[in-house]
């Protein structure tokens, strides 16, 4: 059924032969507005590190072109689940919204 606030979520996950999640395809439907809207987000995960079980990078996939853009990188410590650094790569629009009045280029 429909949620009370008119927002519904749908998610499809793709796993590889080693049961690692390699792709997330999520859609949010908002029927509380007219006309209703939907937002689709696709993320792909790259593994490496200890025995190839650590996510070392995430890529955002453009739903219209299927082009992938690096969105996050992970650095691990001595243990398989010890993330010591995560770098989130934001696009120019997101950076501007996060830091009004400051232009950042990386």
In words, what does this structure look like?
With 106 residues, the protein is mainly beta. The protein is built from 1 helix and 6 strands, in the order ββββββα. Strands 1-2-3-4-5-6 form a 6-stranded antiparallel β-sheet, with no helix packed on it. A hairpin with a 5-residue loop joins β1 (7-15) and β2 (21-30).
Q: Could you give a short description of this structure?
A:
The protein is mainly beta and 106 residues long. It has one helix spanning 92-98, and strands at 7-15, 21-30, 37-48, 54-61, 68-76, 83-88.
Quick tags:
106 residues; 6-stranded antiparallel β-sheet; 6 strands; disordered C terminus
Q: How many strands, what sense, and barrel or not for the largest sheet?
A: 6 strands, antiparallel
Strand order of the largest sheet: 1-2-3-4-5-6
Q: How many separate helices?
A: 1
Q: Fraction of residues in helices?
A: under 10%
- Average pLDDT taken over every residue: 84
Distance between the termini: 44 Å
Rg, Cα atoms, Å? 17 Å
Which class of secondary structure composition applies to the elements?
mainly beta
Taken as a percent bin, the fraction of beta residues is over 45%
Low-pLDDT segments, ≥5 res: 92-106
Q: What are the secondary-structure elements, in order, as H or E?
A: EEEEEEH
What is the count of β-strands? 6
Give the overall shape, derived from the CA principal axes.
elongated
Produce the secondary structure layout.
Elements: E1 7-15, E2 21-30, E3 37-48, E4 54-61, E5 68-76, E6 83-88, H1 92-98
Antiparallel strand pairs: 1-2, 2-3, 3-4, 4-5, 5-6
């Amino acid at each position: 059924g429909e949620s009370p606030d008119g927002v519904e979520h749908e998610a499809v996950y793709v796993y590889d032969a080693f049961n690692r999640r390699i792709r997330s395809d999520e859609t949010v439907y908002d029927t509380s507005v007219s006309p209703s809207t939907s937002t689709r987000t696709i993320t792909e995960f790259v593994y490496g590190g200890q025995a190839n079980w650590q996510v070392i990078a995430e890529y955002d996939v453009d739903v219209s072109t299927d082009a992938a853009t690096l969105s996050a990188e992970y650095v691990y410590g001595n243990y398989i689940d010890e993330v010591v650094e995560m770098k989130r790569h934001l696009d120019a629009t997101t950076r501007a919204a996060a830091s009004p009045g400051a232009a950042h280029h990386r």
